[in-house]
Amino acid sequence: MDVLVAYGSKMGGTAEIAEAVGTRLTERGHAVILTDASSASDASSFDAVVIGSALYSGRWRTDCVKVIKRLEHAAYQGPVWIFHSGPLGDEDADEPQPLPGTVGAAVDSLDVRDVRTFPGRLVDKPSGIVARLMARSFAGDWRDWGAIDAWADGIASALDESQAA
Ligand SMILES: Cc1cc2nc3c(=O)[nH]c(=O)nc-3n(C[C@H](O)[C@H](O)[C@H](O)COP(=O)(O)O)c2cc1C
């Protein structure tokens, strides 16, 4: 199936998660377009959409919000998988984060199969004062590649099933 994997990432961590998801789906035989959400204007033309945003102050990257709203506007019928990435640290990084209000209503109108929170990464010397202050306590990489691959495998299996039906 033709699958769009679109991501919104400021410092690259979420982009790499999206890339891992895209690679897994490709390995499982699906035709994947991996793209920054800013270039995902034609999302509704795909059989399925995976969208992943970095979380900043509880919000998604604006371009990811736009992709979701465009899908809603197009009354997109295909399956949608959502992830967001952010939580840092050794404690509670797996705690599911709520969807931001900017996408909540739009998501309700779509066939969303799963919303998943993945722990994130903060580089040692990020740009921006707030990020640098955070990095004093939370610089590190908590991304769980096994969990990411397993999630992508679940998507691939669901796509295989709908293809067979
Ligand atoms: C200023 C700032 C605010 C953040 N706010 C949140 C947040 O509200 N929730 C969260 O889970 N993570 C938050 N994070 C952590 C980032 O989401 C995490 O570093 C993520 O992996 C960054 O993704 P990116 O590299 O794709 O930009 C914040 C990080 C910074 C620097």
Task: Set down the secondary structure blueprint.
Elements: E1 2-8, H1 13-27, E2 31-36, E3 48-54, H2 62-73, E4 79-85, H3 101-108, E5 111-118, E6 121-122, H4 129-138, E7 140-141, H5 145-164
Parallel strand pairs: 1-2, 1-3, 3-4, 4-5
Antiparallel strand pairs: 6-7
Helix pairs in contact: 1-5, 2-3
Residues 9-15, 54-58, 85-88, 97, 120-122, 126, 130-131, 134 line the site of flavin mononucleotide.
Question: Could you name the key traits of this structure?
Answer:
binds flavin mononucleotide; single chain; globular; Rossmann fold; 165 residues; alpha/beta; two-stranded antiparallel ribbon; 5 helices; 7 strands
Structure, described:
It is a single chain. With 165 residues, the protein is α/β, with parallel strands linked by helices. The chain has a single domain (2-164), classed as 3-Layer(aba) Sandwich (Rossmann fold). Helices cover 39% and strands 24% of the residues. The protein is built from five helices and seven strands. Strand 4, helix 3 and strand 5 (111-118) form a beta-alpha-beta unit. Helix 1 crosses helix 5 (145-164) and helix 2 packs parallel to helix 3. The mean pLDDT is 96. Flavin mononucleotide binds at residues 9-15, 54-58, 85-88, 97, 120-122, 126, 130-131, 134.
The gist of it:
With 165 residues, this protein is α/β, with parallel strands linked by helices.
Fraction of residues in H or I helices: 25-40%
CATH H-level superfamily: Flavodoxin domain
Rg over CA atoms, rounded to whole Å, is 15 Å
Number of strands: 7
- For the record, the count of structural domains works out to 1
What ranges have pLDDT less than 50 throughout 5 or more consecutive residues?
none
What is the strand arrangement across the widest sheet? Answer: 2-1-3-4-5
CATH class: Alpha Beta
Instruction: Briefly note the structural class of the backbone.
Output: alpha/beta
% residues in beta strands: 15-25%
- Tell me the CATH topology: Rossmann fold
